[in-house]
Write a structure and sequence with these properties.
Helix content is 4%, strand content 39%. It is mainly β and 383 residues long. A 6-stranded mixed beta sheet has the order 1-22-21-20-15-16, with no helix packed on it. A 4-stranded antiparallel beta sheet has the order 2-3-4-5, with no helix packed on it. The chain has a 4-stranded antiparallel beta sheet with strand order 6-7-8-9, with no helix packed on it.
């Protein structure tokens, strides 16, 4: 998540004040999208399956390791795996990745947010069949920009939940005004609006002003969970727990209080929670410990810089951050991850664990604002 546009120096008085305090990019980052190009053709099965060599094994509990030594998939922390095409709809930013292994296609599929920074946002898709070393963006991109009249330009902070091979959910946001929109798909590529009205499909907590990133999943046939990043009035970005009987009925839990155990430094933000997938299946709990497990980013001095952490919980309310130090850190000068590594997307396929993340340069004026990196670590599969 980039913080220049509507994260830095905001949320300091009331909702009306919040809308005016971000930089100029705040209003234009989620500006109305000029088109609605989300019903286009697919790549051929041969194109996406060619060379696909993954050794998944769904009999193994190969959960991503919390204390792993992560290494850059490209060989350098300064080299991303996905960058924005400045002459395309992406302009200067690709960010907020989510990677899921698709067993039937033998590919890693990445959903990501493109553009912003004064341009309309959209959701793009890229795929890799060589363990994340190279990625091919789909020709249909952007696959979702929202639906005119109901969820127009509601493609910020996308999170995709793959309920089954033929049922996908997408939550996206727009913060002018703050609202969360819902779309559905049968293949993760072609999306249709599922929001009943233009109003937000999920409420803000009592002191909330803006929606950020999120993770949600189905806990049981009648129970869903949502970890939602929210910009609060007079404060920073925090994470709130929601519960619901389906994706349309989420309400704030924990008495409306944030999950403050996740904060790493007083007065600093925390958000961008993601849960792991294992061989293509969402797995909010580590099967060995039975604990809910997330990866997320947190700030050291207010909203910036941010690093990536790992945390676990028995009840989604009380969290233990372990290790206490970041698992992936921002890189500073000379790197695409100058002042942020954020929005981690953890997964494993067979004996390899991955974390996709965005690296940001929030002070950049005439350069790439955000690119996507990928880290890997070995997994010792556990029976």
């Amino acid at each position: 998540m980039l913080y220049t546009s509507w994260h830095l120096g905001i949320i300091v008085a009331c909702a009306a004040t919040v809308a005016t305090l971000g930089t100029e990019a705040a209003s234009s980052r989620n500006a109305a999208s000029p088109d609605n190009r989300h019903h286009l053709g697919r790549l051929s099965a041969g194109a996406i399956a060619n060379g696909a060599l993954y050794s998944e094994d769904t009999t193994l509990n190969n959960f991503p390791p919390g204390g792993a030594v992560w290494k850059p998939a490209t060989g350098s922390w300064n080299t991303p795996v996905l960058t924005a095409n400045a002459s395309s709809w992406e302009h200067t930013a690709v960010q907020e990745p989510q990677v899921i292994y698709i067993p039937e296609d033998k590919v890693l599929r990445m959903w990501y947010r493109g553009a912003g920074w004064g341009h309309p946002s959209g959701v793009g898709v890229a795929e890799s069949s060589d363990e994340g070393r190279t990625w091919t963006k789909r020709s249909e991109n952007p696959v979702w920009v929202g639906a005119d009249g109901v969820s127009a330009d509601c493609a910020g902070q996308p999170f995709v939940y793959r309920e089954s091979s033929g049922k996908y959910w997408l939550f996206g946001t727009n913060n002018h005004p703050a609202r969360l929109c819902i779309a559905t798909s049968t293949d993760g590529i072609h999306w249709v609006n599922a929001s009943a009205t233009s109003a937000s499909q999920v409420p803000l907590p009592p002191n909330g002003a803006l929606f950020g990133n999120r993770a949600f999943w189905q806990e049981s046939p009648t129970e869903w969970k949502l970890l939602q990043e929210v910009g609060v009035k007079g404060g920073v970005w925090e994470v709130f727990l929601y519960t619901g009987k389906d994706p349309f009925s989420f309400v704030v839990a924990n008495g409306g209080l944030p999950l403050s155990d996740l904060q790493r430094h007083p007065g600093s933000m925390y958000g961008g929670c993601h849960i792991a997938t294992v061989d293509g299946q969402f797995m909010p709990k580590d099967p060995t410990t039975g604990l809910y497990t997330i990866w997320y980013h947190a700030g050291a001095h207010g909203n910036l810089p941010t690093d990536i952490y790992h945390a676990s919980s028995a009840n989604l309310l009380n969290w233990t951050v372990s290790p206490a130090t970041p698992v992936i850190t921002h890189q500073g000068g000379g790197s695409f991850a100058f002042d942020q590594v954020a929005d981690p997307s953890p997964l494993t396929v067979g004996a390899t664990a991955y974390i996709a993340y965005d690296g940001d340069n929030n002070g950049c004026k005439e350069c790439s604002h955000a690119s996507i990196g990928l880290a890997t670590a070995p997994v010792s599969p556990r029976k």
